Amino acid sequence: MAPEQKREREIVEAAARLFCERGYLGTSTQQIAEEVGMLKGSLYHYVRSKADILYRVIEDVHRQFTACVEEDLAAGGTADLARIEAFLNRHLDLLLANAVACEVYRSSLRHLEPEARCVVLAERTRYERHVTDMIEQAQTTGEARSDLPASLLATLCLVLVNRAAAGGTDHEPEVVKRAVASLLHRGLVPGLP
Predict the structure, then answer these.
(1) Sign (positive/negative) of CA torsion 46, 49, 50, 55?
(2) Which of 7, 33, 50, 124 could pair with 43 as two cysteines, CB 3.0-4.6 Å apart?
């Protein structure tokens, strides 16, 4: 990574920590600059504004989630419970690995500039649609319960996974992952209560 890119990365990571600790509105560009050991004016060599930094924090996370969809689509095949669970397990891994940025996303999405928010929400909709599509395929083959709409099942699966990772947990990541996988499996299998 080039020195300039490394410095930009430091700024985004420092801002994410501050946004998480103090909130977006409670964090100033002065505080971000101090956190990375530079003058406030120098910060603007790397970023346009505090809103630009927030977008970069959120977009970095979205890029990783979008890569999950791309990899799953490239792998192809019929969606079955194992594929859905593997995809959602990867989702949980990303949430746990990016806890600070994901908390910023959850708490500060509303502070993005309108155009940036539209981009992020469109990416999120595409991601949610992919989960719905996988569940619909699994319903068609009888792998997933069909007594509930695929879109509702997708929403419930994502809420479960997102909530399991939100705000930290007192449990080891592997324990959380096993519990979530078990609940997802029970919730998607046809005929189980």
Answers:
(1) negative
(2) 33
* Residue 105 in tokens: 């996303």
The tokens of 191 are what?
């005929």
- The pLDDT, as a whole number, for residue 187 is 81
> Taking residues 154-175, what's their average pLDDT?
79
pLDDT greater than 90 at residue 48: yes
